[in-house]
Please model this.
Amino acid sequence: MSRAGAQCEVAIVGGGMVGASLALALAGTGRDVVLIEAQAADSATHSSFDERTTALSNGARRIFATLEVWEAIAAQAAAIRRIHVSDAGHFGFARLDAAEHDLAAFGYTVSNRHLGTVLWQALQRRGGVRLWNPAQVQAVALATAGATLTLRGPAGERQLQARLLVAADGADSMVKRAAGIASEATSYDQVALVSNVRCDCGAGDTAYERFTDSGPLALLPRGDGGYALIWTLPPALLAQLHGCSELEFCRRLQQRFGWRAGRFLQAGRRASYPLELVRARASIGPRVALIGNAAQALHPVAAQGFNLGLRDAATLAELIVGAQDPGDAGMLAQFARRRVADRSGIIAFTDRLVRLFGDRRAPIALARDLGLLLFDVAPPAKRALSRVSWGFGAAPRLSRGISLIASSRR
Ligand SMILES: Cc1cc2nc3c(=O)[nH]c(=O)nc-3n(C[C@H](O)[C@H](O)[C@H](O)COP(=O)(O)OP(=O)(O)OC[C@H]3O[C@@H](n4cnc5c(N)ncnc54)[C@H](O)[C@@H]3O)c2cc1C
Model:
């Protein structure tokens, strides 16, 4: 690497939920890390830390506990202890109880905004990672010994050299493009309409999932007593539901969902997300590693996108801490090898689930078995499910409760 500009060992581009988690995993390990994020972390219009609710698996809970932020996350999280699955137009339904599976909860929900706040506050408090925020990476040049980034921030343009460049910059990753890594995108021809809703009986610890002829509809309990609605629709229906009054929206939701959660009284801002699978053809390039949505962006039906991205981050952090030269070809090959089974397993699982959800011939029993997969556990497929919860392949140390700070001192 030439000596011009600032230098670091690891530059993480993108401080969304996955990039910020990687930075936190590396804080205090002695590695020289810069986290670059274009949006101010506390911005009200942040595209990652928005009104959405994320369902965290038990594996994610364990990683955050090892990073010592679970307590702060849990302060506004809701546990999912029961799941109710029903099929519109059929009488059958299924109820699942975490206690019957010897689990404290199937998973936990938390707002993206709260998760972002906890991660960034922890990064600011702990130190050990240089936070360049707001700063946008505009160009990337890759060479055998490292990467050179050109960034623009409030103080103008600057350069940064890194031995390893981590792409955590989302599905439309510019780092991925700069590294010449192609992506395959498959549209499901569906959109997810997301809103925070309230019913006359507050949300407890039950998540609902209802299959309808236009797509699945999920209600996840939130820590504030309301529900996060994720309504999967054909794009043609979206305009009607986006444009109608709150009262009309609640009426239509009631009609679709029924009364099992009570009467819908309020619906917050409605946002929609096109549903597609974007998969990078490779998770590494010379001096580059892809994590989170930059590597794979999934349909949210199985609530796996962030959980999978977090395991990318936890595995990469472990390899960075143990590497002589973070970003050398051997370390990167190891990262790709360690992630291949989990990535392909979860991508295939989510893709199959989306297609089965769309099949109206699927009987309630099948729907129930699949619905359970939404979070972690199903009695008929417990082993397969625990894989979905903890990931396929070797589990990262952080999800086994082993701190990387301790291993970096050895
Ligand atoms: C409706 C919906 C519901 C979901 N529910 C769940 C769920 O319940 N459970 C689950 O596990 N997953 C869920 N997901 C998936 C999950 O939200 C994503 O997988 C996750 O947010 C990806 O995070 P990320 O950090 O990889 O990417 P992003 O959130 O896209 O973050 C990328 C960051 O990079 C920054 N950036 C981009 N370019 C640059 C640049 N050039 N310079 C500097 N910074 C840059 C951006 O500002 C952004 O902050 C859901 C997704 C959707 C759409």
